[in-house]
Structure formats: C-alpha cells, structure tokens
C-alpha cells in the first residue's frame, strides 16, 4: 500500500501553545500518535465537552478510541508518573490496555535524577533554569553519558538491582559532596522499581518496528512534540532550555522513523507568546496587558501551576522556528484570549546594536541587546470565542491572522478559539491536505 501522510506536530514557541488540544482534534485523522521527546515535564491539556484531561507522558491520541499511543525511545520515562497517569485514564473508563505502547529503548528517570536536579537548581553560583523538577535534565545527562537505564533494562531484575546499587552509590556521593544532600536508599528503590517494572512490562515493545510497520501498512502516524522549538537543546535559548530535541528532527531520532516517511510538519503557535521558567523573552510584557492575557488565557503551568510570563507575538522567533522545523502549516491558538485587547503590538524584527536583523542571537548577551521592533495592529474588541469558520471572525481578527501568515512564511491550517475540542476551525486547504 502506498505511504500516507504522517505529520509532526510541535510547539513553535516556548511550550504550552495548545499542542494537546490540537493533537486531540487531529487524532481523529490518524491511526497512531507517538511522543518523541521530553517526559512528564510536559503538560498537555485536552478539554472534551467540558471534561478536562492533562496528559504528561501519554500521547493525547489515546483519548480517541481506536487511536494507538506510543511513547518513543526519545522520551525519558518516569515509571511512577507513567503508572499514575495510566490509572487516572483507566479510572475514567478509557481503554488503555492494548492501545498504549512504550519503547524498550526509552530512558528511565529514577529518584536520584530528581535529587540531583533539585540540589543543583538551588545551589549557589549555578544558573537557575527554573526547571519542572522532574529529573528530566539529569536523566538525559545519563543517557548521553551512556550510563542511563533503559526500559528494556528496567525489565531485567538482575540488571536493575546492580544498576540502582552502582548509580545510587555514585549519585549519593556526588550529591552529598556538592550539595550536602541526604543519601537515597538503593534497596527500597530497587524493590519499588522492580514492582513498577512488572506493571510496565505489558506496554513495552520495539516501537520503531511497530511504527514503521504501521506506515508500511498505510497507516498515518502523528508525532506529538512536547515543549517547544525555543526550548530545544540545540536550537533553543540555551542554557534556558529543556534537555531534549523538541524540534522536528527529534521526531526522527526519538522514534526510529526516517525523515522520508514523515509527510509534513505542523507548528502550533499562540496568537501571543508565553514562557514559564527563566530565560530571555524579547517581547515580554511588563504592564497590565500581561495580567489581562494571563487572566483571560489562564496562563498558569499545567504541571507546576507557575504563572506563565506573557508577551506579544514575536515574528522573528516564529520565522526561526518555522525554518529549523521545516514547518509547512501553522495552527494559531488562543485567538479568543486577545478579544479585549484594544491595540495589539506584533514584533516584526529585532534591532541589535542599532542594526535591524532577523537573525536570532546564539548567546545571552545578544538577547540582552535586542530591541524589538513593533507594528501595532488594531484589536477586534469583540468575542471570537467558539467561532469555527474563518469568514465569521471579525474582520480585524482575520487581518491579524493574515498578517501573521504573510510574515511567518507558513500557511495557517487551523485556528483555535477556545479550549474545548469543538472550539476549533480547520481551513479548507489544510482539511484537503489531511486527506492525503
Ligand atoms: P500544551 O503544553 O502545548 O499542550 O499546552 P497546555 O495544555 O500546557 O496549555 C494550553 C492551555 O490553553 C490549556 O489550558 C488549554 O486548555 C488552553 N487552550 C488551548 N487552546 C485554547 C484556545 O484557543 N483558547 C483558550 N482560551 N484556551 C486554549
Ligand atoms: P509542554 O509540552 C513549557 C521549561 C521549564 C524550564 C525549562 C527546563 O507542556 O509545552 P525541564 O524540567 O524540562 O528541565 O525544564 O523548560 N519547560 C516547559 N515550558 N511547556 C513545557 O512543556 C515545558 N517543559 C519544560 O519551565 O524553563
Ligand atoms: Mg503544557
């Protein structure tokens, strides 16, 4: 059977763009949804007929009966977080068994990863990143250091016991010496994780083989990104980033599906920008408008509850994100949040040392010298909430979207006008492309 169009869907900014909602809406058109990076630092919110689900590790596709979920090898898996998420979904009656699969090559997060992260984040003299404290960074460190534990190893009890003993000795020694941290007990850790392994075993398989076979058989796979392009370990605002490849390339290395088998890239962008945690944010708003966006958009972290920093749409950043991801389509979320804005400044370029540029600086000094150049568009000042057809949007909202599309260089495929699954519009060209 000929290959149908699979798609990567990812965050075009600093995360929380509404990926969860859009993956849920689009999952109707796909057979499988695969997470390829990050871990339970992600918080993907889906609202279906007023019922709210926040998924952290499990791909949002599992909320659709018949759509399979895959946790790819690029993910770092906290077994306890995984099991508690599975339980929550089962408790509301979702059929998870036989619908959800974990890569045998995914890396495992263990309690010492969290211990090291917490101690390091609060240590004097360290650059505070404002992480989600889930042990993500230290787990990826071990992966790259070739001293991590993979899911396949978690299932091997002799290997698990030795690994935990050795790793605890090393991490306890380092954490105590550097941060004065109390040691963790390897014996109870082994017992707890060996029990978890038994519950996890039925979900584990070679997901690269499974995904490739599905594509061979004419099925469509959606690769669900976590975090966002500017949080990517290589392309983001380093060091204020997460520790994984959140960009489109991560979908390839994080699942074992080659780039020629992925048909398109869909970037999700808010109609404005938010960021949670530390790091540069050229268009951050420092007046009352930020409070308006935060209140209307309920901009508080889905995982940590932290207030999100709010800013105006940043086109140089979006263009950069589109470039590094090869984004073909954009989904613009949270249009309704701007319904009360009288004027809407949009950043169209950066001035660095008096020179107009579109190039994103690589270093923090570069970011500190950015003076954003704004064009102010008129706000539409009426409700767009729940509108599902482009032509029914107020003219000024249509103008805003057309401006965004022209300046960003990617085509707008969908617009979201509220948190619910139903509060979404799909533009005709995108609907047509999805049929492929
Ligand atoms: P993700 O991490 O990209 O999946 O995004 P989050 O779930 O962390 O944050 C997005 C938040 O915005 C969630 O609370 C969603 O329910 C909400 N949301 C998504 N789309 C819209 C929209 O178009 N309008 C409004 N008002 N809220 C939205
Ligand atoms: P979703 O998938 C927004 C941020 C953290 C911190 C930095 C590093 O919901 O969009 P980490 O714990 O990953 O080492 O933290 O990255 N961060 C996110 N911000 N959305 C996310 O995920 C994030 N995942 C991590 O706030 O600044
Ligand atoms: Mg989120």
Per-chain topology:
Layout: E1 7-11, H1 19-26, E2 32-35, E3 44-48, E4 51-55, E5 68-71, E6 76-77, H2 79-91, E7 100-103, E8 107-108, H3 111-122, H4 136-144, H5 151-154, H6 157-179, H7 186-200, E9 204-205, H8 207-216, E10 221-224, H9 248-253, E11 264-270, E12 273-275, H10 288-296, E13 309-311, H11 315-325, E14 329-333, E15 343-352, E16 355-357, H12 364-368, E17 370-378, H13 395-408, E18 411-416, E19 424-426, H14 428-434
Parallel strand pairs: 1-10, 1-11, 2-5, 2-10, 5-7, 6-8, 7-9, 11-14, 14-18
Antiparallel strand pairs: 3-4, 12-13, 15-16, 15-17, 18-19
Helix pairs in contact: 3-4, 3-6, 6-7
Residues 15-16, 42-44, 302 line the site of magnesium ion (MG).
Could you characterize the architecture of this molecule?
- With 436 residues, this protein is α/β, with parallel strands linked by helices.
- The protein folds into 2 domains: 321 residues, Adenylosuccinate Synthetase, subunit A, domain 3 (Adenylosuccinate Synthetase, Chain A, domain 3, Alpha-Beta Complex), CATH 3.90.170; 96 residues, Adenylosuccinate Synthetase, subunit A, domain 2.
- The protein is built from 14 helices and 19 strands.
- Strands 9-7-5-2-10-1-11-14-18-19 form a 10-stranded mixed beta sheet, with helices on both faces. A 3-stranded antiparallel beta sheet has the order 16-15-17. Strands 3-4 form a two-stranded antiparallel sheet.
- Strand 15 and strand 16 form a beta hairpin.
- Helix 3 runs parallel beside helix 6.
- The mean pLDDT is 96.
- Bound molecules: guanosine-5'-diphosphate, 6-O-phosphoryl inosine monophosphate and magnesium ion.
- Guanosine-5'-diphosphate binds next to helix 1 and strand 3.
